[in-house]
Every structure is written in C-alpha cells, then in structure tokens.
C-alpha cells in the first residue's frame, strides 16, 4: 500500500493524540510504585473515577478489554453463562476471552441498536437444573458501539436491573463510552452506574488518553479485581505517568464530547443526502456514524480505498457498512471535508459507470 497523508481520520476515537496540555500533565506527574499501592497519581485517578461513578473503589487497568475480562473473571465461574447483546464488544472483539479465560460463554440477545429489553433478559435466564448452563451475569454496553453509538436509556437499564436483582444475577457495564452517554443524555454517570455491580470507563476513546481504563465497584470486588490484574500482568509501576493523562482528561475532555456529537450529527446530515448512502441507524445520538454503501454499487473497502486517496480515513465494518467516529482531533471543517470527499468518491464512481446507483 502506498503512503498517504491522512488529513481527516474518522476510523476511531482511539486515533486522537494526547494534547500538549495532557502531555505536560503526564511529564509532571507525581509517581510511585503502583503494584505497592503508592503511586499517588494512579491512586488519585482511581478515587476520582470511583467518586464519579458512585462506587466504593476503582482499579486502573491497561485497557478496556482488560476491564471487561477482569470483571468477568471475578464474577464468573467456569460453566456459567453471560447475557449480552449480539453486537457486544465482549462477543466480537475480545478473542473469546470470556470462554478462553473464565470458562464462561456468552448468550447473545438480538437487541435493537445494541439495546435489549428486560423481557428478553427474563426469557433467556436458564432454569436451575443440572443440564442447563448457570446464568450468572448480564452485560450492557454504554454507549452501544455496534448499535451505532446508541445511549442505553436509564429507564431501560433500570428495567433490566430489576430482573437481574430478582434472579440474583450480576450486572456489568462496559462503559467504554459512558461519558459520551452522560453528555448526550444529561444523566449523571453515577445515576447510570448505580444499578451495576461493576462498571468501567475507557480513557483511550473519546477522553483522548494514550492508554487505559478504570474499573469500579464494591471494595471487595476491586480487591479481587486486583488479584486478576496482577495475575494477568496488568499491575504496573510508575503508572502515574499514564494516570495523569486520565486525570487531565476527566478535568478537560468530558464536556467537549458535545463537540464530537455535534460533528457526528453534521457529518451524518451531509452524507445522508448522497445517493446510495444510508445511515444505520438513521438517528445519531453520540460520536459514531454507521452507514451502508450498498446502494452505491461499491463495497465498503472500495469506498475506503478511494477516500484514503483523498486523505480521509473511514472504517470498514462489514462488506457494505462503514463506521465514522468523531473525536478531539477532528473539527467541524474536518467532517465537512470528509463528507465532501465521500460525495466525490460516489459521484466519480457513478460517472465512470463503476457504480450502479442510477440503474
Ligand atoms: C474499545 C472498546 C472496548 C475495549 O477497549 P480497549 O481499551 O480498546 O481495550 C470495549 N468495549 C467497547 C464497547 C469498546 O468500544
């Protein structure tokens, strides 16, 4: 592949680079030995996240994936069953970690844009007999990534929580983009987190940090999570360098997520008018824009390659589905440029007869 210079990168909100202010905070961070519990910056970050989420304690982990896996390892025994939406990151993107590490498997539910109902959960809880897997945990994703950045409404969370309480199941939130849900809905993070036994947020997505996630819950849950963090090799040393980025992000990068949401909506509005492009879902709630290029006659990979030639990078999700993600390294003019490039790519393909849109 030839070198291209990418001017607008909409592949993921993980693509943002640490800002000068964040780099300064990292350089000046007070540090100690995290494994021994005396890294002041990491301890402070964990206290901040525990407070933000209304939980007793929190633990800093190298990634969101490790937050999910450590939570599953603490909550689940071998042979137990997890309930999650069929699009969930723990199903699609964690190397079957639940099965490989905890010996648990995941029962997928067909939700609506990543959001399933309390009735679906109730209907999928196994009978307590010797044959059936033991239903143990229900996991929700806030926001739902492959659901299109959909915010789980508080009412839907409460309804699911009622069922998990009734059946003594554990409730876990993959809050990779929880702060996007908070900004989009106006619901405080602690209110979203209240019914959950465990909840984490990702620092390296919209919050713009280079590394990390923070997992929160009851003190005894976090104590067990620490055992797994250590066992998996996730216990660090002068992690304050990384934690300082997280502290900075919580102070400076939360409210600005509204800009990412506005830019995503603007991008969606612009591309919705392009012949052959269809938004999926049609309404944009946060910073993720999924769209189908099927009716253009081009594959998503072909569109991606042609966009790249124009300095615009957009992700390929499936044969004919693409995902554009806004973040702090993309501004309004960037999404306008990306939308214009997409319009040109489709129009050029149509003009050269490669695309079938006018057939
Ligand atoms: C990115 C993501 C993760 C994993 O986070 P990493 O920090 O990349 O390991 C988990 N869940 C969801 C919904 C995500 O989008």
Per-chain topology:
Elements: E1 8-9, H1 20-27, H2 40-53, E2 57-61, H3 64-75, E3 80-85, H4 89-92, H5 97-102, E4 105-109, H6 118-124, E5 134-141, H7 154-166, E6 170-175, H8 178-185, H9 189-193, E7 198-202, E8 213-217, H10 219-231, H11 240-252, H12 257-272, E9 278-279, E10 288-292, H13 300-309, E11 312-313, E12 315-318, E13 321-325, H14 332-351
Parallel strand pairs: 1-11, 3-4, 3-5, 5-6, 6-7
Antiparallel strand pairs: 2-8, 7-8, 9-10, 10-13, 12-13
Helix pairs in contact: 1-11, 2-11, 3-10, 6-7, 12-14
This protein binds pyridoxal-5'-phosphate.
Pyridoxal-5'-phosphate binds next to helix 3.
Q: Which cofactors or ions or other ligands sit in this model?
A: pyridoxal-5'-phosphate
Number of E-state strands? 13
- What kind of sheet is the major sheet? 7 strands, mixed
The residue ranges in which pLDDT falls below 50 over 5 or more consecutive positions are none
Number of helices: 14
Going across the biggest sheet, name each strand in turn: 2-8-7-6-5-3-4
Estimated radius of gyration: 21 Å
Instruction: Tell me roughly what share of residues is in helical segments.
Output: 40-55%
Walk me through this protein's architecture.
With 359 residues, this protein is an alpha/beta fold. The protein is built from 14 helices and 13 strands. It has a 7-stranded mixed beta sheet with strand order 2-8-7-6-5-3-4, sandwiched between helices. Strands 9-10-13-12 form a 4-stranded antiparallel beta sheet, with helices on one face. A hairpin with an 8-residue loop joins strand 9 and strand 10. Helix 2 runs parallel beside helix 11 and helix 3 packs across helix 10. The radius of gyration is 21 Å and the shape is globular. The chain binds pyridoxal-5'-phosphate. Pyridoxal-5'-phosphate binds next to helix 3.
